[in-house]
Amino acid sequence: MSPPSPEIDSPEPHNPFQSPAMTEVEAIEPEHLEKLTLPSWRLVVGCVLVVSGILGVTWSSFPDFQLPETIGGGLILTFIVCLLIVAVTAGMGISLFIQAVRRREFSRLMPGHWRLIAFATSIVGQVVVGIVDLFAGTVKTNGLGYFLVYMPEAILAFAFYGWVLRTTQETKWWRQYAWICVVYYLSIGSETIARWLVYQKGFGSPWNPYNGFEVAYVLAGLVAMIAFIAAMLADDRRQTKRDWYHAVGLVMPPFALFATWMMFAIIIRAD
């Protein structure tokens, strides 16, 4: 029996039914994105320590945030752990933002970096409401506390993701995620304003308009989660190389948000 022809596996020219040769199969190449120059550990540690100090003063010294004397030791330990989780997450986000601005590498921020920076905006409202409560003491009476907690975050995160969309080098899925985040924070800001107007009796109708905005940001959050998962799967398929800050940013913000809620819950429970 004669040996098989060496051309048996070669594609026949002009044959639309011929399977492509193995060398012609398109490979999925990893994305070649310009990487951000990561912040030094000194900058990261410094930001974490500063945030820890600010949050510690805010939550322990200002009248409406201070821990009651009746709180148990276990709850105090839980409170401290939660505060550290929030401080580390926000501190990393602030250090990344400082590094990106200082080196003019904003367009090189990765999606995980976005999430860390966006979470860092949430501590601004906590500090603002603490300062206002210290000097005015009216945040509990007219809905001002809710407004001051959420409005700074909504404005800053909305502006941040808007700038991300103008500058980012990221893929379509991550751009779509950023667009949804813009809608999400816009909905939070709108809901915050509407709720405050209801407190001020700015609407003559018994219908509370902020309910519609609540539905909007819940839906935006669900859609953002879908886009988030799809973008991660696309990264995995393309074998996109990322840094460890990106990985932390994908995982930590939900835990830090839960830690923030836990701190509020401990204060309310103790009161």
TrEMBL record:
Transmembrane region(s): 43-62, 74-101, 113-132, 144-165, 177-198, 210-233, 245-268
Descriptive protein name: Uncharacterized protein
Record's keyword terms, sorted: Membrane, Transmembrane, Transmembrane helix
Origin superkingdom: Bacteria
Lineage: Bacteria, Pseudomonadati, Planctomycetota, Planctomycetia, Pirellulales
